[in-house]
Write a structure and sequence with these properties.
The chain is mostly beta strands and 153 residues long. Helix content is 7%, strand content 46%. It is built from two helices and 13 strands. The protein has helices spanning 26-30, 147-151, and strands at residues 2-7, 11-18, 23-24, 36-38, 53-54, 57-58, 61-69, 82-87, 93-95, 100-104, 113-118, 123-131, 134-143. A seven-stranded mixed β-sheet has the order 1-2-7-11-10-4-3. Strands 9-8-12-13 form a four-stranded antiparallel β-sheet, with no helix packed on it. Strand 12 (123-131) and strand 13 (134-143) form a beta hairpin. The chain is globular and about 45 Å long.
Amino acid sequence: PTMLVGRTPHYTLNLSIGPVQPTVSAMDASHGMTGEVAVNPDTMMGHDSGMMSDQGMAANHYLTVHIAQADSGSVVMDVTPTIRIVEKASGESRDLPQVMGMYGASMGMSDFNYGQNVSLPDGTYQVKVLVGPDTAEFRDVMVAASPMMMADH
């Protein structure tokens, strides 16, 4: 997966783009299922089952942002970041509508992040993460199909 670090006056942000992740319940995770667990399942209302689509397109990546306090390094769990994706070639911009607090089932709360499955065609993107008055910009983010996805064709 692609992993990048951005810094703002108040936060350190780690952006990661990897393979699609199923959304599992905390109970499923406790029984060994892998995927991402929603921290507040009530926010799942209106999400498609397993969050495997994005704007009617099949999701092909999982985009996640880990946010930590710049001074202490402590994990930030009480914000709702805006994640804006701009396709460099077309200049087309969109905000991800369903970003929520999640954690990897196998890692627990130490992996707290904000993310969702997304549909991103191969290309170069700018990803902006807005947290209150702070904005972290990740420029020239290269997105390509994973080799595992290619093997299926």
